[in-house]
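pinned: reference chain
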Amino acid sequence: MRPEQRSGFIPLSSESQISKMPADYNGTWDMVSNDNLDGYMVALDINFATRKIASMLKPQKVIKQDGDSFTFQTISSVLTYKSSFTIGEEFEEVTKGMDNRKCQSVVNWDGDKLVCVQKGEKRNRGWTHWIQGDELHLELTCDGHVCKQVFKRRT
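pinned: its structure tokens
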């Protein structure tokens, strides 16, 4: 009898996959960069005055994660936007403070990334969050326009 058979150890085949826990997004995150917000907002048909105000803001994200359930708050001096969702479950979202449109959204894991697809009036709309070190990255997409934002975890 081989040693692994005596111990109850069952070797995994090369085809087996070991799933790892997704990233921990909990925390307060302060914005450090915001590239192409104006282009993204143009794709959403947001007016010039609102785009200029938004470009001056440095929002903070507060994320609460309990397994696959999330609450995201984006807080600025002008408004607070809150969204709650569970991974894999479609939900109705009103993009309050951005373009105020209703869309059907669903968020899924792609490895350690959170990927949201938003279906509604605008084509190819959604976002992706991921963590690198102490930074939270966010890519917002709409109709071929991409806004890249980076937040740093508050300690």
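why pinned: Residues 102 and 135 are 29 Å apart (CA to CA). Residues 1-19 have pLDDT under 50 and may be disordered.
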